[in-house]
Amino acid sequence: MYKVATSLSQGGEETDAIENPLGFRFFHWDFEDNHLVVNGEKINIKGTNRHQEYPWLGDAIPKWMHKMDMEDIALGLGHNFIRLTHYPNDKYLYELTDSLGIITVEEVPNIKNIDFDEDIQRQNVIEMIRRDRNHPSIFFWSMGNETSDAADSKWAWEEDTTRILHLRKGEEGGDFITHTHKNLEMESMLRVVMRGWFGTDDSPASINPSPENGQHCSSETWEHQMARVEGGSIRGLMGKNAITWLYADHGADREYLNCPLQHFNAKGLVDLYRQPKYIYHLTRANYTDKPMIYVHPHFWRSKYVGTRQNIMVDSNCDEVSLFVNDQLIETKKPSKDGFFTLEFNDVTITSDGVLKAIGSKNGQQYPYEVRMPAKPHRIVATSAQSRLPADRSGIAIIKADILDAHDVPVFDATNTLHWEIAGPGSLVGPKVYESDINKLESKTGTGYGVVPVCNVVRTSNVAGELMVIVSSPGLISDTILIESVKPADDQRYIEEVALDNDARAMVKKDTTMNYVPLVEVEIVPIRENHPIVGADFNSYRNAIDQFIKSRNRWFNQDAYGYQVLLDVLAKKMVSMQGELIADDYNFIINQYNQYYELEKQINRGTGATEEDKVEVLKPYAKSIIEQSAPVDVEREKLRIRNMHF
């Protein structure tokens, strides 16, 4: 990597200067066997996706959080490829992908069955490319994801002919798209997993924690197993040109069967708070060269004492020996064909035992030890941030763990945690964390399943010492101190006048608010993707008609808008070759349900003739169902009530 310095001068005095990155690489896509070739070498893609968010902060996160994630992705997990979804990210991300050597996909912000404004789409493409075209890590410009109205690739081609123009499962991308999901699936190995559902005994008893469908919530063990089976997860196989969806759990407008929380996409290698799942360690074993070893600990608990269990170990070492109380159980050799995973069968679980695996590589030994935890005894709070600026921008992550009386981590602890802060700062997250581990599709929660878990604190504009206390009934609490320091005043830039703290108050959530849906569900959403069998528009239309009727017994099949809905879905099935994606279907159905409120209103004694009704409904159907335009349902219902026929 190099830097190109450019400056402007007038009268011998520098008036402006900028530095841009410069890197030399030659790449192309080999369409014969669908591989990326970089500097003449065929690349096995080891990729992931990432949303730029963190709990309680949303997208407005500090640069150090981006760096924390990206270094973990590149160095901790060994990824060489990333799609920063589904929009141009903070430009600092592309500085990081340059410096870390991660091949990058940058994507314009469009999605779903929405009729986007052409001028805005064109502006988005131009601004994205002009802002980031000097980053050598960017190999792909993506014109969209799962959209019926992708950006026109002509706009990208006019700006930059040196990158690969990609479109994932979209329509209307123009004539310059050369690369799609058929060449490289940007979202693979999808599986909803709750961290803390280690094995079959850790999830609610009423569900199946080993579902075939990756859109149904499952255990960490099941995900770990299915990632090593061709077709075991939704698309892809560990180590085979795979781009995992995704690095970290995140909030999303999705509802997954048996997931503890609604509107929560739990498909990450790590959870919301960046705590690893079993799949994280499988990825490390397969993608990194630095010696690593990890023992799945969930059978080493008191409830399994006296039983014989199979112990799983992930390691990229040359060989691994497993011991119980220093007694050798067996020595095995990890291999690429075995996904660098070893299974030690029929290990007796003992209450006073220490489970230890020792990996050997290049003459060095790498031990990993699991001790059986007793009852939770005390909390330990830690933070990597000890000194923050006192300018309201200072952010620290506080991690809480729980240990037993012998300082052994109680890795399955679910104790309710209380967070308090004293000093010139505030908690960004809630004051109380209750575990979501036994919830099923709850509308509320924190994403906390088992410890460790994190909260976030923010500084004010007053310097001083922040004291954060984490407690739980029956446990010894812990306190952590963070210094908030007035920023240096020798900075050479324009800054806003500091806000006065007098009469400044926190905005509080109205807990009395009772959300009442404005739209009744005429057609219900679906929880998983479905194949729809058809050969052309008409056959797909008939098939989707039967699909809807089989799942909705009482809806109005004679509604004017229903025929429009069938046309929209049939067109989608033609473009997707019969792959009905739950996200897409539910988005369109939600638009239809909003529209149908208006059709019901016009049928309620307005005195309109059938011809009048169609004239009123036609533009609504086109706008809301076909073009997915937003609508104020209550305002439009009032407008209809005031119509005179």
What secondary-structure arrangement, pairings included, does this model have?
Blueprint: E1 2-10, E2 13-22, E3 27-30, E4 35-38, E5 41-43, E6 46-50, H1 63-76, E7 81-84, H2 91-100, E8 103-107, E9 111-112, H3 118-132, E10 138-147, H4 153-159, E11 164-168, E12 179-180, H5 220-226, E13 242-244, E14 250-251, E15 264-265, H6 278-287, E16 293-295, E17 308-315, E18 319-324, E19 327-332, E20 341-348, E21 354-361, E22 364-371, E23 378-382, E24 387-389, E25 395-403, E26 417-422, E27 425-427, E28 432-433, E29 453-459, E30 464-471, E31 478-485, E32 530-531, H7 537-551, H8 560-576, E33 579-580, H9 582-602, H10 610-626, H11 633-641
Parallel strand pairs: 6-7, 6-13, 7-8, 8-10, 9-10, 10-11, 11-12, 24-31
Antiparallel strand pairs: 1-2, 3-4, 4-5, 14-15, 16-17, 17-20, 18-19, 18-21, 21-22, 23-25, 25-29, 26-28, 26-30, 27-29, 30-31, 32-33
Helix pairs in contact: 1-2, 7-8, 8-9, 8-10, 9-10, 9-11
Question: What key attributes describe this structure?
Answer:
645 residues, Immunoglobulin-like, 33 strands, eight-stranded parallel beta sheet, alpha/beta, five-stranded mixed beta sheet, globular, single chain
